[in-house]
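Action item from last week, closing it out:
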Amino acid sequence: MSEPHLSAQAHARLQAELEERTTTRRRELSLWIERAREHGDISENADYDAAKNEQGHNEARIRQLEQMLKNAVVIDANAAGDVVEAGTLVDLRYEGDDDLVTYLVGSIEERHEKYDVLSTNSPLGQALLGKGPNATVTYQGPKREISVTVVAIRVPD
């Protein structure tokens, strides 16, 4: 697994989610399972099955968050801006298209309201890392090679 690049805000949000899942959510699920057991035979108890399923999802997300936060590289968005790197916004123009597309470069965990996130591990993300304005890169798409030009790079507001 490669190192996820996270903004300080995303890192803090994920840390808070981990804290909530390991404390409050675990207690809620434990109580749900306990109440479901009180309904009798657990082999045919849909509420018990649902609670155990939800508990499994919660524990899986906890493991995912722990691993991600352990390996995360927290980026300083204030230092970014002259080359494409995690934490920057990049305006791209695809070959043969006049429209600009703007992406936030970083981990999918960024979940930005206004911009789609471009993973640094994606083929396009890998091709763009370290490039400056006016650079044209080619990457392998699902069916063919695709060329894009970096129009502008900026730091998110």
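Closing note: The chain is about 40% helix and 25% strand.
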